[in-house]
């Protein structure tokens, strides 16, 4: 393989890399994917909810064979305080029985299947191969340096290495600035084994159907981020995270934002805090942890994205900081951007031109798609939460106190209760709360 030159080298067999490889291989291009794990999926972490639309765009009808866990029939969003859980949103959507929108997946099962579709299309997948550097000649990326396979060359290298701590390929080559601590979250995830009948009973699901629960507020000790439970076939995916900037030397410092002060805690303690919340504990009763993993998630919107193209290279997915910081979407942006990169390379091949000029068409595709639009739309979402920490601390507490008063039957008249609630909001800065809530609703709509 040493002297071969490929049309395209793809770094990383995650959703972005495999989508790019399938697209190009189907058009007859010579493509190789280099994956550092012993097989695709062995190094990957995700909640994980995967979306049909973007998968179908890449593999067509073959999405029906994908190894999914459960179709998501219900979405729930909870606002939590230490003493209560406010179920703000619940949407049980029976249309998804016939036409699934999303499924829970386990990446260790999904990724090998997805990569097998790239192989079927004619791409080579080489596992256990770490790409150590991009090979740059006269300012153009011409290949990659690997420990195991030596240097490999191609007309274009598509970087789909995901996001992580330490210097990544683009940073080593000076093509991307290091990620700042408020541009990404560190998330932890446990897979917990539980009898399917118990999963269905506890999450009110029909056999084989699933539910996604996401919890804000006290679940993350008031930090920008959320915790989740996703139902799999016979396991639960339990996890969540907060911005890296909220971790200080491995600890998160509590700020005084009107919530219970939890002192300092580690990501692991964040997880334990969530798992022992009175609304969560019974859902996990008897479930056994079979896997524990941690990984980063891009959180900073469009402005954090690096240059997506240059002479001889393109960047997709998490490596390009493409993840929606408000919705839990990442895998779909990765697949869509991989597909768009693949389509751009097919055009470049037809033109016989892999220069920056031709490859810049990729950015046009991204910008005009839901990726560019959503990434721009949510640019200010995380800064808003960072600058107004009371939104996930004090405000849920106030709502909880108001509802406690409202629902409590204690001989006090409803007039008096309403007056008490209004006075409480007035005293605690209700006008600012209304203004901030409107701002948040506008920013995150
Ligand atoms: C806890 C958690 C929960 C999440 N939940 C969801 C969810 O529910 N829904 C959703 O859509 N998204 C979710 N995401 C985000 C989603 O996982 C990512 O957006 C998505 O995986 C990005 O795909 P990717 O292909 O860009 O990168 P990755 O999936 O990270 O794939 C990168 C691949 O590159 C390989 N690689 C890295 N460096 C090298 C190298 N130097 N040489 C060779 N190979 C290399 C890695 O081993 C990996 O296989 C979650 C993320 C986390 C951490």
Structural descriptors:
single chain; 445 residues; alpha+beta; FAD/NAD(P)-binding domain; D-Amino Acid Oxidase, Chain A, domain 2; nine-stranded mixed β-sheet; globular; binds flavin-adenine dinucleotide
Q: What count of helical segments does DSSP give?
A: 16
Query: How much is the average pLDDT?
Result: 91
| Gross CATH architecture of the largest domain | 3-Layer(bba) Sandwich
Overall tally of domains: 3
State the end-to-end CA separation.
50 Å
Shape: globular
Bound molecules: flavin-adenine dinucleotide
Rg over CA atoms, rounded to whole Å, is 23 Å
The fourth-level CATH homologous superfamily of the largest domain is FAD/NAD(P)-binding domain
**Most strands sheet:** 9 strands, mixed
Beta-strand residue percentage: 25-35%
At the first level of CATH, what is the class of the largest domain? Alpha Beta
Which structural class do the helices and strands define? alpha+beta
Low-confidence stretches: 249-261
CATH topology of the largest domain: FAD/NAD(P)-binding domain
Helix content: 25-40%
What's the total number of strands? Answer: 20
Structural summary, described in words:
With 445 residues, the protein is an alpha+beta fold. The chain folds into three domains: 5-69 and 105-178 and 301-368, FAD/NAD(P)-binding domain (3-Layer(bba) Sandwich); 184-298, D-Amino Acid Oxidase, Chain A, domain 2, CATH 3.30.9; 388-444. Helices cover 35% and strands 27% of the residues. It has 16 helices and 20 strands. It is globular, with a radius of gyration of 23 Å. Residues 11-17, 34-37, 43-49, 130-131, 160-162, 169, 187, 189, 239, 295, 297, 317-319, 323, 328-332, 334 line the site of flavin-adenine dinucleotide (FAD). Flavin-adenine dinucleotide is lined by residues 11-17, 34-37, 43-49, 130-131, 160-162, 169, 187, 189, 239, 295, 297, 317-319, 323, 328-332, 334.
């Amino acid at each position: 393989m040493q002297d071969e030159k490929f049309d395209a080298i793809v770094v990383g067999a995650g959703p972005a890399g495999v989508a790019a490889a399938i697209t190009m291989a189907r058009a007859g291009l010579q493509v190789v994917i280099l994956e550092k794990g012993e097989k695709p999926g062995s190094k990957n972490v995700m909640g994980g909810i995967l979306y049909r639309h973007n998968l179908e765009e890449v593999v067509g009808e073959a999405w029906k064979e994908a190894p999914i866990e459960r179709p998501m029939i219900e979405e729930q969003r909870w606002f939590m305080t230490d003493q209560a859980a406010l179920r703000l949103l619940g949407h049980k959507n029976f249309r998804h029985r016939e036409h699934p929108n999303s499924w829970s997946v386990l990446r260790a099962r999904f990724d090998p299947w997805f990569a097998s579709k790239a192989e079927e299309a004619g791409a080579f997948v080489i596992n256990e191969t770490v790409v150590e550097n991009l090979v740059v000649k006269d300012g153009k990326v011409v290949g990659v340096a690997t420990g195991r396979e030596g240097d490999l060359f191609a007309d274009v290298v598509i970087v789909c290495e995901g996001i992580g701590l330490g210097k990544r390929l683009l940073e080593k080559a000076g093509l991307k600035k290091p990620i700042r601590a408020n541009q990404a979250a560190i998330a932890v995830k446990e897979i917990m084994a539980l009898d399917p009948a118990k999963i269905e009973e506890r999450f009110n699901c029909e056999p084989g159907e699933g539910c996604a629960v996401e919890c804000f507020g006290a679940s993350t000790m008031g930090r920008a981020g959320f915790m989740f439970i996703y139902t799999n076939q016979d396991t639960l995916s339990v996890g969540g995270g907060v911005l890296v900037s909220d971790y200080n030397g491995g600890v998160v410092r509590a700020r005084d934002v009107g919530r219970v002060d939890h002192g300092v805690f580690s990501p692991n303690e964040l997880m334990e805090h969530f798992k022992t919340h009175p609304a969560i504990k019974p859902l996990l009763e008897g479930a056994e942890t079979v896997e524990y993993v941690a990984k980063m998630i891009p959180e900073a919107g469009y402005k954090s994205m690096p240059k997506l193209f240059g002479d001889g290279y393109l960047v997709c997915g998490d490596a390009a900081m493409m993840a929606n910081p408000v919705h839990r979407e990442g895998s779909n942006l990765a697949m869509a951007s991989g597909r768009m990169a693949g389509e751009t390379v097919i055009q470049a091949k037809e033109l016989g031109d892999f220069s920056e000029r031709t490859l810049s068409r990729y950015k046009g595709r991204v910008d005009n798609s839901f990726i560019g639009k959503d990434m721009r739309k949510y640019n200010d979402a995380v800064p808003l939460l960072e600058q107004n920490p009371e939104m996930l601390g004090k405000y849920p507490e106030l709502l909880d106190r108001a509802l406690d008063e409202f629902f409590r039957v204690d001989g006090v008249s409803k007039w008096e209760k309403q007056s008490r609630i209004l006075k409480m909001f007035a005293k605690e800065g209700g006008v600012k709360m209304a203004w901030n809530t409107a701002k948040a609703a506008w920013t995150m709509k």
